[in-house]
Structures are given as structure tokens and as C-alpha cells.
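[agent] plan:
  1. take the single chain provided in the ticket
  2. run structure prediction with default settings
  3. attach C-alpha cells to the ticket
  4. add a short note for the reviewer (M.T.)
[agent] executing step 1
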Amino acid sequence: MDAASRDRQTTAVTRRANDIPEWLAELASARGFSVRTRRGSRIGSDAAPFAIVLGDASSALALGQPSSALSVGRAWIGGSFDIEGDLFEAMRVMQDMAPQVPVAFLRVLGFLRRLGRPLRSATRDISSHYDLPTAFYELFLDPMRVYTCAYWRQESDTLEQAQRAKLDLVCRKLRLGDGDRLLDLGCGWGGLAIWAAANYGARVHAVTLSAAQAARAAQSVREAGLHDRVRVECLDHRQVATGQRFERIAAVGMIEHVGRHGYAALFARVRDWLEPDGLFLNHGITMRRGSAWSSQMEFLHHHVFPGLDLVDLSTTLASIEESGLEVLDVENLRPHYARTTREWAQRLWQRRDEAVAIAGEKTWRIFVAYLAAASVAFTEGWIGLHQVVARRASAR
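[agent] step 2 finished; step 3 output follows
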């Protein structure tokens, strides 16, 4: 490279570092948001719904060539830029900042996601997300620490009321009765197990792959005086003894971590665990049919939920039916999850200092981004939340 070429390259890099990237300026103008740097450069109005604030000279370079949500997401969690104003509108616009990665590459990624995961990998994946300090989750969850979609019976209900309503909805759909044996797969911090035992008289075997969740759930069971009705274990669903029998089984927010490659085996186990006429409720996130593995999903896989695999409702229903279970009821709670994730994101956004003190700046940024982006995705209908109730037929 000659001296003139080096000078031109140096000039270009310096200009890019010192100014707002041209593509970002054009996007801000088209979508009506503002951009500024901490050195004083500014584009857009003070009345814009949100502002992207670039940090030091490297920030513009980090955002200069966005090839996917993965690169934009990494710039965010690395602190290259901040957001002021409407977080959710910013997440909508970031879809334009993150064009899709090549289709052929996505097909390869999708194929790899469908391969089986050994138990060790599943345990590591779950631990990476759920074994953060419980105090961090308590900053944005309800007091029962229910980390799944809430259910609003009335618009005026609080998140706390909506989460209790969801727990009750699950129990009512399962037609739980006094003395029924309930297997709670992916029990989290024990909210459903405690609710079912305390309010419906169920005898619950609750399992989770997260050691931190299992320990805190067991503590909550003891505090509620339900240790004689609820047993909590740190287990994968594949480790639950096949000889056990239950009148009811719930999998609330677990199916996303199983992946389509494990559906047939999971639902076959559910069938074998159920007594004749027993009921099973599956509560899980679904993708719109025909959707490809996106760069947004790749960000979630890398930074939020390793091993995540979302499929369409039709695939889930087919797998349940192929296991020998009869589907009785299907309900989409998508609007409820849009509001749930929005409230979680707002709470965590407002408690930044506490969150950073507990889990660090990077973790706070990851969770705020994924919760806000999830709320937008549910609102737009890119993903849904379906509850499916199925029955094991009577023995003949």
C-alpha cells in the first residue's frame, strides 16, 4: 500500500470515527429518531421518541457495518451505544439496523439447532441463564418469581395479579383435584408447584435443571409449609423415573429448551407417565409458520438462551398427537406475553443501578435488550405463546 492510499484510508477511518455513520444518519432521518455522540455531534430533534447515543471513537466503527442482529446486539452489550427514551420503539427500529444474514447460512444454523443435545450440554445451557443471582430476577419478576407469561383477566390487573391468574389458569385447565399427582417439568422457582399444592391440594413432583432454582424453590416450599406435598429436585426431564405415574403433567416454559429434536421422546415420556385419562398441559413459545432462523434468534442463542429452539404450533401439535396423546384445547396467549415482557423490561430498565451492582453491566444490557425485543416480537406477531392441553386415552 502506497503512502497516498494509507493517507486516504486513515482519513476515511478518522472521518467515520468522528462523525455519525452515514447509514445511521439516513435511518434516523427516515424513522424519526435522533442520534448524538458524547463529543457533541447530533442528528434529529429533541422531540424524537428515542435517541441513540454513541460513546467513544470506536462506537461508530462498531456500528458502522451492521450485518446482523448479532453484531448490533454485541455493540449494545459492549457499551458502544446507549438508548434514551422509548426503548421499545428503539427495538423496532433495530430490526432495520440488522438485515438478515444469508439464507444458506441460516439453513445450516437451523439444521445444527435440530441436532440432539446431550444432557451435559442441556445442563450447561440452563445454568448459563437461570443460575444468575436470584436477587437479579427479583428486580423485575413478581414475588413468586414466575418467569413465564402472565395472564391478564382485566386490563387494570398488576403483574403480580396476572401471574397468580396464570398459575390458576394452568391448574383449572388441568382440572386439578385434591390429591392429584402433578409432575411439574421445568418448575423454575416453584411458583406453580406451590400454587397447585396450596390451592388445589395437589401432590407435586417439581423438577428443574437449574441448581439455583431448585435450591430456592425448595426453600420456598419449606417457607410455605408444603414440604409434605411438594418435592423439588434438580433433574432433567430425561432423568425422571419412567415407572412413576401422574394424573396431571405441566410443562410451562420448558419446551423451548428441549428443541424439536427432542419432542418425540419428551411427549412419549409424558404419555407413559400419565395415568389413563390423565391430562398434560404444554405452555411454550412458538414461531410463525414458515419463519426462518433469523439473526435475532442467533443473538438469543449466543447471549441469552444457549440451545434455544422455537418451532411453529403445527409441528408441536403433530408431535403431541404422534405420541398417542389427544389434543383437547389450544389457546394463544401472545398478547399476554407481549405485556408481560414489556413490564419486565420496564422494571429492569428502571432499576439499572441495582441490576448492575448484582450481576454486572453486561448482564443488565443483555436482559433489557432481549426482554424489550421479545415484547416487540410478541406485539408484532412474529412469535406466539400457546397453551396446549392433551389427554392420554383410557386403557381399553
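[agent] step 4 note for reviewer: DSSP finds 18 helices and eleven strands in the chain.
[agent] ticket updated
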